[in-house]
Amino acid sequence: MKPNSDDVDRLEINMIACEGVGLCVHLAPSDIVLDHWGYPIILNERAASPKQVKRAAAACPHRALIVHRVDQPASTPDHS
To answer: Tens digit of pLDDT per residue, the chain (80 long)?
Structure first.
């Protein structure tokens, strides 16, 4: 399926696979922060910077950051 302007990226972290390397926060700082143990926390489920998030997911040594392509429902016109 070819992405279109209505598609957005949704982030997920597999916390079982994650070992807290922290590379993701350096590659996608507008979408991910680290908790006080050094594990990632997603700031917003919908990626603010999809390009950075995809690069972070590809660089994760444990493949713990997952990017899902989600079709965003078209908004319905307000008929009031």
So the answer is: 444 444 568 889 999 999 999 999 999 999 999 999 999 999 987 888 889 999 999 999 999 999 988 775 554 555 55
Q: Is it true that domain 7-71 has CATH number 3.40.50.2000?
A: no
Pairing relation of β-strands 65-71 and 40-42? unpaired
Q: Output the pTM of the full model.
A: 0.73
Rounded Cα–Cα distance for residues 32 and 4 (Å): 24
DSSP of the chain: ----TTEEEEEEE-TTT-----HHHHH-TTTEEE-TTS-EEES-SB-SSHHHHHHHHHH-TT--EEEEEEEPPPPPPP--
Q: How far apart are CA 65 and CA 26, in angstroms?
A: 13
